[in-house]
Design brief:
Number of strands: 22
Structural class: alpha/beta
Distance between the termini: 79 Å
CATH class of the largest domain: Alpha Beta
Largest sheet: 7 strands, mixed
Bound molecules: nicotinamide-adenine-dinucleotide
Length: 517
């Protein structure tokens, strides 16, 4: 552990989380059997090696699946409220480890420590939600058309839920899935992003501790590690009835076809291209806060990051000046230092994508109003720190249509009615998050109406970024159509069964069909 940063208590955090120099990341928690290649995880904060994990081989995967399928037999028959009690204990463990895990999230992924803590808080919140839900996995009852018959529906566990997650929410997305899947009676096999595998090890250690303390099989929570090839082991595996995949639209299209090809279910949480509409009736101060946090928070690497500001021409200059002014106050640097607003991008490949986007927007006729650039020198040695940039652009530009996962904000102008702005907001392939800033009730309601935003999330006087766990989270179109977290998202983790019970001595057939013998 000598190589890692000693500042900001990272070393202590790793110790608290049971992270070792080399982690048998394939394990289901306590098995150590991987012979796979070693994956090294470097921090984008200072470029130092955090720790290593072993990638999952085919043989390892088989062992994991055996542990998972066998654990399912125990777990599925445990009453749901008792499963909820285990999730409650898991939530309590997260409370204990919140600072350590939040720090690791910040150090391995690059988001601010505050956002790292926020991510762990989301995990705690979804556990609380799941505990309550464990007593509410209800189905409907309906009246049978036949006398002396009772009909109802119930929900049963699915089996092994495969979770594939992205680098930018290295712990919360897993918990959104697991907390619900666990109370539903499923067991989970998780492949975290190969760009943030140590977060996966830390979470797995916490979960394993809880299951062990309750004498429950370790296979209820399994971890596999590696790149897309390890993800494919699950997408191709008929023993995995549901694959929940979070990441790029490119990945989602491959996963969707693979899983559908074997008639499995997939829950897809993919890329966004989120816009805030700013109407003449907007509160400018609120707009600036929402837009700037949305565009530069997590260095523009949230699926819900604000990428487009669609501003009415009558207030365009005023809003532009206010946002540009706010950008001048941004401090870029080590995300563990709470004085900084913007941390690094995940790696130098992401930096290249950011640079390409800025070149392309100019080539397509855009106008840079806040200059970007890569930072170098003391504190920026990792080569991953960039300046948030703003460009005036048009909605039909190729680069504007594309999700660039970096802090690049496009200013777009609309004129006339709010319908014109809504058309621009909807005029992209993705459909995750959207917002309108207005004090005009009619505009707000039109934005929320059937003819309004086509996104999974539509906010009024709130930015696009971030969401509460109580609502169903996800988006339409190329965002994949999946919903996870709150509301009735739990239903995707269960199979529905309709039951009809005859308590008479006759056997009447449905639809009045006669079959006399
Ligand atoms: P990515 O698509 O590169 O990788 C995501 C995960 O998919 C990784 O674990 C990766 O190993 C795996 N993967 C890639 N190809 C695969 C394949 N063919 N089969 C199986 N697994 C495969 O995405 P990323 O760069 O880690 O994350 C950024 C993207 O994720 C952005 O597009 C962002 O908008 C999106 N995202 C969406 C949400 C959401 O809820 N909608 C949340 C977070 C991130």
């Amino acid at each position: 552990m000598d190589a890692i940063a000693t500042d900001f208590g990272i070393k202590e955090a790793l110790q608290q989380l049971g992270v070792k120099d080399i982690n048998e990341g394939t394990s289901t928690g306590v098995n150590n059997f991987s012979n796979g290649d070693v994956i090294e995880s470097y921090s984008p904060v200072d470029g130092k090696l955090i720790a290593k994990v072993k990638a999952t081989t085919k043989d390892d995967y088989e062992k994991v699946m055996q542990a998972a399928t066998s654990a399912f037999k125990t777990w599925r028959v445990m009453p749901a409220p008792q499963r909820g009690e285990i999730v409650r204990q898991f939530g309590d463990k997260l409370r204990e480890k919140k600072e350590a895990l939040g720090k690791l999230v910040s150090y391995e992924m690059g988001k601010s420590y505050q956002e790292g803590l926020g991510e762990v808080q989301e995990m705690i919140d979804i556990c609380d939600f799941a505990v309550g839900l464990s007593r509410q996995l209800h189905g409907l009852t309906m009246h049978s058309e036949r006398p002396g018959h009772r009909m109802y529906e119930q929900y049963h566990p699915l089996g092994v839920v495969g979770i594939i997650s992205a680098f930018n929410f290295p712990v919360a997305v897993w918990s959104w899935n697991t907390a619900l899947a666990w109370i539903c009676g499923d067991v989970c096999v998780w492949k975290p992003s190969e760009k943030a595998p140590i977060c996966g090890v830390a979470c797995q250690n916490i979960a394993a501790e809880v299951f062990k303390a309750n004498n429950l099989p370790e296979g209820i929570s399994c971890l596999i590690n590696g790149d897309y090839r390890v993800g494919e082991m699950m997408t191709k595996d008929t023993r995995v009835p549901l694959v929940s995949a979070t990441g790029s639209t490119r990945m989602g299209k491959i996963v969707a076809q693979e899983v559908a090809g074997r008639l499995g279910k997939s829950l897809l949480e993919l890329g966004g291209n989120n816009a805030i509409i700013v109407t003449p009736d907007a509160d400018i101060k609120m707009t600036v806060i929402g837009a700037v946090f949305g565009a530069v928070g997590t260095a523009g690497q949230r699926c819900t990051s604000t990428r487009r500001l669609i501003i009415h021409d009558s207030i365009y200059d005023k809003v532009k000046d206010a946002v540009v002014d706010a950008y001048k106050q941004l401090r870029i640097g080590n995300p563990l230092d709470e004085n900084n607003h913007v941390g690094p991008l995940i790696d130098t490949d992401a930096v290249k994508m950011y640079q390409n986007a800025l070149t392309q927007v100019v080539e397509e006729g855009g106008n840079i109003v806040v200059e970007g650039g890569v930072l170098s020198g003391e504190g920026y040695e990792s080569g991953c720190y960039v300046k948030p940039a703003i460009a005036e652009a048009r909605n039909d530009m190729k680069i504007v249509q594309h999700e660039t996962f970096a802090p690049v904000l496009y200013l777009l102008k609309y004129s006339g009615d709010v319908e014109n702005a809504i058309e621009m907001q909807n005029g992209v392939a993705q459909g995750l998050s959207s917002a309108i800033m207005t004090n005009n009730l009619r505009e707000a309601e039109r934005f929320l109406s059937h003819a309004g935003s086509d996104c999974g999330i539509a906010n009024v006087n709130i930015g696009t970024s971030g969401a509460e766990i109580g609502g169903a989270f996800g988006g339409e179109k190329e965002t994949g159509g999946g919903r996870e977290s709150g509301s009735d998202a739990w239903k995707v983790y269960m199979r529905r069964q309709t039951n009809t019970i005859n308590y008479t001595t006759e056997l009447p057939l449905a639809q009045g069909i006669k079959f006399d013998l």
